Amino acid sequence: MLYLLSFLVLVMLSIGIAIIFVKDILSAVILSTVVSLIVSIIFLFIAAPDVAITEAAIGAALTAVVFVIAIKRTKMEETEDKE
Q1: What is the SS3 assignment for 54?
Q2: Which runs of E-coded beta strand occur in 1-83?
Q3: Tens of pLDDT along 16-59?
């Protein structure tokens, strides 16, 4: 189990570093959602299922939806300004 947790932490760190270098904002949001899901899996492995469910629901799902809506609205306003 220690190897699996170490692997998940390494994957999470590598995705976190990749978020810094991604040029597309939507890709960065998706990658941050993946990091949040990995964190919830780690919480599940360390016997904190309530925290894992909360992290998956709030950290991954709700935050991703809010960011995607904000990106869509920002792009809509940019296209209206160009016209």
Answers
A1: helix
A2: none
A3: 999 999 999 999 999 999 999 999 999 999 999 999 999 999 98
What are the backbone angles phi and psi of residue 54, rounded to the nearest 5°?
-65, -40
Residue 47: left if φ>0, alpha if ψ -120 to 50, beta else—which one? left
Q: How many C-alpha atoms does 17 have within 13 Å on its Cβ side? A: 5
Q: Encoding tokens for residue 82?
A: 């160009």
CB atoms within 10 A of CB 31: 17
Amino acid at the residue 15: I
> Rounded CA gap, 13 and 4, in Å?
14
Q: What is the pTM of this model?
A: 0.83
> Token pair of 3, please?
């190897």
